[in-house]
Write a structure and sequence with these properties.
Protein name (chain B): Ring-1,2-phenylacetyl-CoA epoxidase subunit PaaC
Strand content of chain B: under 5%
Structural class of chain A: alpha/beta
GO biological process, one term (chain B): phenylacetate catabolic process
Number of helices of chain A: 5
Structural class of chain B: mainly alpha
Organism (chain A): Marinicella litoralis
Number of helices of chain B: 10
Low-confidence stretches of chain B: none
CATH architecture of chain B: Up-down Bundle
Number of strands of chain A: 7
Order of helices and strands of chain B: HHHHHHHHHH
InterPro entries (chain A): Fe-S_Maturation_MIP18 (IPR052339), FSCA_dom_sf (IPR034904), MIP18-like (IPR002744), PaaD-like (IPR011883), Zn_ribbon_PaaD (IPR056572)
Mean pLDDT of chain B: 96
Largest interface: A-B, 22 and 26 residues
Bound molecules: zinc ion
Mean pLDDT of chain A: 90
Largest sheet of chain A: 4 strands, mixed
Distance between the termini of chain B: 43 Å
Number of domains of chain B: 1
CATH topology of chain B: Ferritin
Protein name (chain A): Ring-1,2-phenylacetyl-CoA epoxidase subunit PaaD
Radius of gyration of chain B: 18 Å
Strand content of chain A: 15-25%
CATH class of chain B: Mainly Alpha
Oligomer: heterodimer
Number of strands of chain B: 0
């Protein structure tokens, strides 16, 4: 095993990049495979000496997950407080930009699909495909699903019900 | 900006927006466990959650404008009915499903048109809040409009109930567009939407659907008014008694 002094010192420097890396572990509490960064919720990281300011934007206005996300961000950063010399973490809810589903990254959409949730359609796309069998023969059961961001669909080919992450733009 | 915004008037208007969303949200929440079937139960409470979220945003904007130390929660849970500024239609009891549906449709059309206009507000925090709320109320409107049509053109009983709901609700709608001298000043400054122009637009859109649904608009009735001045129906007092009970009994309680 070799000891790499250079990377060791670099790691300890408190930079925005390092914070983004730590925050990659913070997932949406309701879709635990997609990070808050890939969801478009994480907008800003600022460092003032030893305190870290994280700016996030809400998805749906009444989304109760925002409280959990705030707590999770603090926990994720404070777990490494000693290593990076972090004194204070402030999580702020920003009023802009206004969140839309266009802010969800391709990586995020792929993770959603693998998890069994049909991701929001891109502009120009027409059919909502079954995340299980890929069929485009699907039907909306209810425009409102288990959470504010999802609608309930059913596949007419494999007959499985599934969630569709609504387009919100 | 050429003219100074009247903060007190804007504060009152933000309370009107917030109080409207909160009372609507609270009424819809009463459907939890009582929806006609599971998916609709979930839909009603989803819409409720969005509306309570809008209330929270507008209360926060009001807090930011104010010099006193009231929080958004204080505004929601510690004001009495005469301090609420919502129009009376939003505090009316939930009634049956036809009544809730038609009431929601009237408010949804209004909210979509209102937030479209407020998205262009010269007061940026209000413009941003309206842009966010707009995406959600558009979705609500799709649902309530489809239900109005579906119920009105279905069984005899559904038709009778829809017509009765229309008779009961129609004369509560003009109050949505009511203004006073302070609001007119904000309208002239481009801070809030031109409610008179919205009234024309709203009537066009709503009457088109009602006609398609073969529903008849009642000719005369008592026209509701008073919310803007804090004068409410008896229903608001009962609603607040239930909604505010916990904070009144256990001040500052959190969970
Ligand atoms: Zn399938």
């Amino acid at each position: 095993m070799t000891f790499n002094a250079k990377s060791m010192t670099e790691n300890q420097v408190l930079t925005a990049d390092a914070i983004y890396q730590l925050l990659a572990e913070v997932k949406d509490p309701e879709i635990p495979v997609i990070s808050i960064q890939d969801l478009g919720v994480l907008q800003q990281v600022k460092i003032h000496e030893n305190s870290v300011h994280v700016g996030i934007i809400p998805t749906y206005s009444g989304c109760p997950a925002m409280h959990a996300i705030k707590t999770d961000i603090k926990a994720a950063l404070l777990a490494h407080a000693d290593y990076y010399g972090i004194d204070r973490v402030v999580v702020e809810l920003l009023d802009k930009p206004v969140w839309t589903t266009d802010m969800i990254t391709d990586k995020g959409k792929a993770a959603m699909l693998a998890y069994g949730i049909a991701p929001p359609l891109n502009a120009g796309e027409q059919s909502i495909n079954c995340p299980q069998c890929g069929s485009d023969n699907t039907q909306c059961i209810s425009e409102f699903g288990s959470t504010a961001c999802k609608a309930l669909y059913r596949c007419n080919r494999c007959l499985e019900p599934f969630d569709y992450f609504k387009c919100h733009a | 900006m050429a003219t100074q915004i009247n903060n007190k008037a804007l504060h009152t208007y933000l309370l009107r927006l917030a109080d409207s969303s909160l009372t609507m949200g609270q009424r819809l929440a009463e459907w939890c466990g009582h929806g006609p079937y599971l998916e609709e139960d979930v839909a009603l409470t989803n819409v409720s959650l969005d509306l309570i979220g809008h209330a929270q945003i507008f209360y926060q904007l009001a807090v930011a404008l104010s010099d006193d130390s009231q929080t958004a929660d204080d505004l929601a849970f510690l004001r009495d009915s005469h301090e609420y500024r919502n129009p009376i239609i939003t505090e009316l009891p939930k009634g049956d499903f036809a009544y809730t549906t038609l009431k929601q449709y009237f408010i949804d059309v209004f909210s979509v048109q209102l937030y479209q206009a407020l998205s262009k507000s010269s007061y940026e925090p209000l413009s941003l809040a309206a842009q966010k709320a707009l995406m959600e109320v558009k979705y609500h409107l799709k649902r309530s409009e489809a239900w109005v049509e579906r119920l009105s053109l279905s069984t005899d009983e559904a038709k009778v109930r829809m017509q009765k709901a229309l008779n009961d609700l129609w004369f509560y709608t003009p109050e949505l567009f009511e203004t006073d001298a302070a609001l007119n000043e904000l309208i002239e400054q481009g801070v809030i939407a031109d409610l008179l122009a919205l009234k024309t637009k709203w009537n066009e859109q709503v009457k088109t659907l009602l006609q398609r649904c073969q529903l008849e608009i009642p000719e005369s009735g008592w026209v509701a008014t008073g919310g803007l001045a804090g004068e409410h129906s008896e229903h608001l007092g009962y609603m607040l008694a239930e909604m505010q009970f916990l904070q009144r009994a256990y001040p500052g309680c959190e969970w």
